[in-house]
Amino acid sequence: MMNKLIVDPLSKNSVIILRDALSEEIYPIIKSGRTLIILCIGTDRSTGDSLGPLVGHKLKFLIRNKVYLYGNLDNPIHAKNLEKTLKEIKDKFRNPYIIAVDACLGSIQNVGKIIIENKPLTPGSAVNKALPKVGDLSITGIVNISGAMEFMVLQNTRLSIVMQIAEVISRGIYHCILKTIGGKNTSIELENKSLTHINA
């Protein structure tokens, strides 16, 4: 059981490291029949806080049996709708396992790194917003330096750093799902075939 793992996106094996760490965590979850929720938190209105929606955007075709995705560029999950979304998830799913993805600020030596922890994350803490803790497992990307005027720091974060982190997180999650669940979503394929037959 992993407590905390720090991944450098610039490492050649970063996607594999992330994939294998996540696979080890979610394999028993999937085997037990629990639903897996990937909850990508953030807003596209702030460069530094756009990590979650970017990851969600990259994973929008990932949906499988028992795997659901919340939060992307079209429908971001942010401070104003997070509690409503959590209630919706609670009402819709019985005991789901939530992987929460969000940006955060940190020390200068960790900027650009990805942190995976076996605990919830606290969204909005960088801008002093009181939001509920989220997730059974958290994936955070350190997009800039913490300190004074953190709202402005997020606004002025380089997009290249956020994109680099988002690419590794999304690929790691994608390959984790392929490894633990498989590449085909049989029920959705059958549903699409049925719709094609009806429309024809």
UniProtKB/TrEMBL annotation:
What is the name of this protein?
Answer: Spore protease YyaC
Q: Does the keyword Protease apply?
A: yes
Origin organism of this chain?
Clostridium fermenticellae
InterPro entries recorded for this chain?
Pept_HybD-like_dom_sf (IPR023430), YyaC (IPR009665)
Out of the domains of life, which is the source? Answer: Bacteria
- Signal peptide (UniProt feature, chain positions): none
Could you tell me the Gene Ontology terms of the biological process aspect for this record?
proteolysis
| Single GO term (MF) | peptidase activity
Identify the keywords attached in UniProt to this record, alphabetized: Hydrolase, Protease
Would the keyword DNA damage be found if you checked this record's keyword annotation?
Answer: no
